[in-house]
């Protein structure tokens, strides 16, 4: 399953999200969701401890000026790679 976080983690149910993540899942944060990758973020430990692969939309990270303050556990990808993730996963959940 592909889980996409589009809103700030402070306005989402991150506890439920992290509890639902499985090894075969991909997690992608975009728009304000990229804030979840900030170092020292209260949600960061739980999302990193999940077994899912973690991605961020590169353009959204740079647009918010946070590229030097994000965890190295996330892979920065383009919107083209985002399309590849949507094709890979028939099931998707938006948070």
UniProtKB/TrEMBL annotation:
Full protein name: Protein TusB
A GO term for molecular function: transferase activity
Any GO BP: tRNA wobble position uridine thiolation
NCBIfam families in the cross-refs: PRK13510.1, sulf_tusB_dsrH
GO cellular component term of the entry, any: sulfurtransferase complex
Keyword vocabulary terms for this entry: Cytoplasm, Transferase, tRNA processing
PANTHER family in the cross-refs: PROTEIN TUSB
General function of this protein: Part of a sulfur-relay system required for 2-thiolation of 5-methylaminomethyl-2-thiouridine (mnm(5)s(2)U) at tRNA wobble positions.
Organism lineage: Bacteria, Pseudomonadati, Pseudomonadota, Gammaproteobacteria, Enterobacterales
Subunit field text: Heterohexamer, formed by a dimer of trimers. The hexameric TusBCD complex contains 2 copies each of TusB, TusC and TusD. The TusBCD complex interacts with TusE.
Keyword Transferase: yes
Claim: 4Fe-4S is one of the keywords in the record: no
Domain of life: Bacteria
Localization (cell): Cytoplasm
């Amino acid at each position: 399953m592909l889980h996409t976080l589009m809103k700030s983690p402070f306005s989402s149910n991150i506890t439920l999200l992290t509890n639902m993540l499985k090894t075969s899942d991909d997690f992608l944060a975009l728009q304000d969701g990229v804030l979840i990758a900030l170092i020292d973020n209260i949600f960061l430990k739980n999302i990193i401890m999940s077994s899912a692969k973690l991605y961020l939309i590169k353009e959204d990270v740079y647009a918010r000026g946070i590229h030097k303050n994000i965890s190295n556990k996330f892979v920065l990808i383009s919107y083209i790679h985002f399309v590849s993730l949507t094709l890979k996963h028939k099931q998707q959940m938006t948070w």
